[in-house]
Amino acid sequence: MAAHNLGTELDLSWISKVQVNHPAVLRRAQQVQARRTVKKEWQAAWLLKAVTFIDFTTLSGDDTSSNVQRLCYKAKYPIREDLLKALNMHDKDITTAAVCVYPARVCDAVRALKAAGCNIPVASVATGFPAGQTHLKTRLEEIRLAVEDGATEIDVVINRSLVLTGQWEGSDFIKTSTGKETVNATFPVAIVMLRAIRDFFWKTGNKIGFKPAGGIRSAKDALAWLSLIKEELGDEWLKPELFRIGASTLLSDIERQIYHHVTGRYAAYHDLPMS
Amino acid sequence: MAWQHPADILLEAWLDTQDRHLGHYVNGKWLKPERRNSVPCQDPITGENLAICLQAQAEDVAAAVEAARTALENWSTLPGARRAQHLTRLAKMIQKHQRLLWTLESLVTGRAVREVRDRDVPLAQQLLQYHAVQAHTQEEALAGWEPMGVIGLIVPPTFSFLEMMWRICPALAVGCTVVVLVPPASPAPLLLAQLAGELGSFPGILNMISGPTSLGPVLASQPGVQKVAFCGAVEEGRTLRRTLAGQGLELSLALGAESLLLLTEAADVDSAVEGVVDATWSDRSQGGLRLLIQESVWDETMTRLQARMGRLRVGRGLDGAVDMGARGAAARDLAQRYVHEAQSQGAQVFQAGDVPSDSPFYPPTLISDLPPASPCAQTEVPWPLVVASPFRTAKEALAVANGTPRGGSASVWSERLGQALELGYRLRMGIVWINAHGLRDPAVPTGGCKESGSSWHGGPDGLYEYLRPSGTPARQPSLSENLNYDTFGLAVPSTLPAGPETGPSSAPPYGLFVGGRFQAPGARSSRPIQDSHGNLHGYVAEGGAKDIRGAVEAAHQAAPGWVGQSPGARAALLGALAAALERRESALAARLERHGVELKVAKAEVELSVRRLRAWGARAQAQGHTLQVAELRGPVLRLREPLGVLAIVCPDEWPLLAFVSLLAPALAHGNTVVLVPSGTCPIPALEVCQDVATLLPAGLVNVVTGDRDHLTRCLALHQDVQALWYFGSVQGSQFVEWASAGNLKPVWVNRGLPRAWDQDAEGAGPELGLRAAQTKALWLPMGD
After folding, report:
1. What whole-number distance in Å separates Cα of residue B445 and Cα of residue B229?
2. In this complex, is the C-beta atom of B435 within 8 Å of any C-beta atom belonging to chain A?
3. Which of A181, A218, B115, B150 gets the most CB atoms within 10 Å of its CB?
4. How many whole angstroms separate alpha carbon B594 and alpha carbon B574?
5. Which distant-in-sequence residues (6+ apart) come within 8 Å of B655 by Cβ?
6. Residue with more model confidence, B96 or B628
7. pLDDT at B15
8. Residue A48: how many CA atoms within 13 Å on its side-chain side?
9. Interface predicted TM-score (ipTM)
10. Which of B117, B268, B633 should one mutate to test binding to chain A, selecting the residue with the greatest count of A CBs within 10 A?
11. What is the reported pTM?
12. Which residues form a coiled coil (chain A) (predicted)?
C-alpha cells in the first residue's frame, strides 16, 4: 500500500467547480476501449500484468474455509506453471495483488496463504458490506476485528446517505462500487473518478488508488481497464499499490487467453486448475 | 523477409491481381493505356514500392467522361427505387471487402487504421444507405428537380476516400453519373470503383481517373460535364474558380481544413481536451486547429493539454494502438515550416507524445503566444498543429473566431446552456458542435461559408448540390472567350443631356437610393432613360465605385437589426410593402406602359409583383428544421441563416417583376441587399423605393443605377459583399464568376439566358429560396 492519504482541509469549492459533460464522457469511454488494441506477445504481457492487479475475490454467502483455501492457492499460482515457463515468466513470482473475503473468512485466508508460503495481503470487505447501513459502532468494531484476524486492507462501504447529502469522507483508495449492485464498474463513471484522482494529486501531491469492482469478467475487459488507467493517470498508477481490479472469474479467462497464446489452441475448462 | 500482418498479405494479393500496375477504372473496367507517365505508390513509412500508378492524359479523361455520359442516359431516367437498390448493393459490397479497403486506405495514406476501420468504412456504408433512402423517395420529395448530369469531382492528395464518398453518394442517388479525378498514387478510390464495377449493372456511373490536380480544367472542359466539385486548398480553389469562369458549368468548392475550438471557463476542461485530440491528433480530420481558451482557465487547460499530449502515440497507421499515423513528406514539411515560422515570430512551441524518430512522422504540436498580428496567425493552421490563444469574454471570443476568412467548422465547450447556444448561433461557421468535436452523420449537412466555400454534402443540402430545377437548359457549348478582366466595366461611358423630358407621366424619382433615402451620385452626373418611342423618359443617377461602397456600408449597418427580426416581423413588413405597391399600381403600370408594355400586361406585372412579396413573406416563416441522428442523443438543428449583404444585378427584362421577384426572397431570408435595377427601364424600381423609404428600415434595400458593367465590376470585386446574383450578359456572367474568386462569394449567374419571371417555377421557385440563405448545422448532444 502506498503512503497514506494524510488528508487535507475539506474545500467544497473544488467540488462545486467540477464540470462533467455526460455525452462527452460517454464518447471518451467508447474511444478508450478501442484505441489501444494490443495483440500477440504484447497482449500476453499486458494480461500477466493484469493478473498482478487482481483482488482475487470470493464474497458468497456459502463461503467456507475449503473454498477460501482453494482461492488462496490459486492466488499464489494464478497461471499454470508450464504456461509461465513457455513465456519465460515462471521466476517472476506472478501472483494476484490480494485475496478479498468477508470478515468472517479472514482467518481462513490468512492461514491458507501462510500454508502456501506467501505474503499476499488479505483484504476484507467490512462495515456492513454491501449496503453500509449499520450503526457506526458496529462498523468500526467490524474493521477492528478483521484487522485483528490479519486483514491488511479493508474495503469500507461508506454511508452513501452522507454522500448524497454532501458530507464527504476521505480514503487511500476509491472503488467504483461494491460489485453487488445492478450496475457496477462502468467506464464513464471510472473516467470521472480517475479525473478526480488526478486533480487531487495535482492539488495535494497525494496519490489515491483506484479499484473497479463487479462485472469485469473477460481478459478483453481487463485490458481496456489497464489502458484506461494508463491513458487517464499514466504509468505511475499501473502498480498494485494504486490500482486493483476486484474480480472472481476474470482470472480464469486471462489464463485461457494465455493458454491460447502459448499453445495456439483454445483450452477446455478442465485444462486449467479451478480456484 | 520481415513478419507480415495478414492484412498486408490480403493487400499484396489484390495488388498482384493488377500485376502491381494500377491504371484507371472506367466503364466498369480497368483502363491501362500505353505510353503514359507513371508514379510509384509507396508505403509512406518504409518507402517500399507497392505498385505503379498510371497518370492520365486528356484523352483518358475524355474516355471517362464519355462513359459517364453514356451511362447517364439510362441511370438518370431509372426510377429512384432502382437506383436505391444499386446503392444498397454497393454498401453490401463494401461490407464484404472492408478489410481490404481499410488496409489499403490506412497503408497508403498513413492514417491510423482504427479511424479508417471503425469510422470511415462504416460511415461510407451509412452514406450509401442514407442516400439509397433519398433516391427511393426522390420522385415524391424532390419533384420539380432533375439531375444535373455528369459530375466531375476533384480530390486532392490529402483527402480521404471518405471525403469522396460524401460527394459521390448524393450525386449517384439523384441520378447523376460521376468522373473522379483522384490524386496520383491513391489506390483506395480505384478499389472502390472496382467494387462498384463488379456489381455488374450500370458500369459507367462511377469512373476514376488517376492524375494530378492540374488535369482539373481538362476534366471541366469536357462537353457534358455539368458541374465540378472540388475540395482542397483555398488557393487551388481560387485558381480553379478563375480558370472555369465563363465555361457555363457549376462549380462547388470545399476549401481548407482548419477547425476551431472555443473553450470557455464553464467547460468540462478534460472533455474539451479530448475534443482537441479528436480534432487534430486522432487522424480524424485533415487540418489543424485554432484553439481559443478563456483567460481564467488558460493555465489549467494548458497543463491538462500538455499532460494529455504526453500520452499520445504516433506510429505506423496499421498498428492498432496508435493515435496518429504519418501523412507523408509534404504534410510533414508543411507543419515544420509553420512551426519554424511561428517560432521566429515569437511563439512558444510544445511537442510531446511517443513518436518514432524516423523521418515521416511529426509529433503532436501545441503553439501558444503567437502574436495575433503575426503572419502565422493569419494563415491556415496545418495538421497536426494546435494554435492556442486566450480570450477574455464570450463577446471577444466571437470577434476573434469570426474575424478570419475561414468558415468551416467549430466547437463550443460550455456547460452553461445559454452561453453555449449564444456562441453556437453566432459563430459564422458551416458546422458547430456543442461540447463535442468532429461528429458526422449522413443525414446532417456538412459544409462551410466564407472562404471555406459554400458547398454542402450530406442531408438535404447535399442532394440539391446535384440537382437543378426541371427544364433548366443544360450547359451550352463552351462560350468562354478571352474577356479582358482588367478592363471589363472599368470605364463609365459619359452621357450628355439628351433633350427635353417629354411624355405623359410625372417626373420620376431621381437619385441613388442608399441608406433609406435618395442621394446624389458621387460622380454628380446622370444618364438618360428612353422610352419605347425613343423619347426621353427621365434621368437616373450615374452611380460609381464610391456609391457602391456607400451602399454596401449602409447594408452592413442595417444587417444586425434585420437579422434580429423574427420571420413573422419580416413577413409583416413585406406585406406592408406589397400593399403599398398595390396602391401605386396605376403609376407603376404607367411607367411600364411607356416602355412598350401593354397596359393590361403592365397591370398584371404589378399584380404578380405584389403576390411575390406576400408569398415570400409567408415562406420565410417555415425555415430550417431539426434532424434526428442515429447514435446521438439530442438533436441537430439545420438552421437557414442569411448570407449577409447580397448584391443583385437585375435583368433588363421585366423591370418591375424581376426586381421584386429577386428582392423578396432575399429580404425574407434576412439578407440586406444592394440592387442594380434594369438598365433599360430602372424607373419602376426607383418608384418602389419611395415606399421602401417609408416602410422598411434604412439601409435594408439599396438601389444603385448607372452603367451595369461598371456597377457589376464594383460589386463582384467587393470583398465585403457576401453573395452576388447576376442577370445580364454572357460577358458579365463570366466576369462575375472570375471576380468572385476574391472572397469566394457564392454567385448565381444567368449566362445571358432569359428567365421566365412571370412563371412561378422560374420567378418564385424553391431555387430562389435555396440560394437566398445558407445552411448551418448545429449539433446539440444531450445527457445529464
Report:
1. 16
2. yes
3. B150
4. 27
5. B592, B595, B677, B678, B680, B681, B682, B683, B684, B685
6. B96
7. 92
8. 24
9. 0.89
10. B268
11. 0.94
12. none
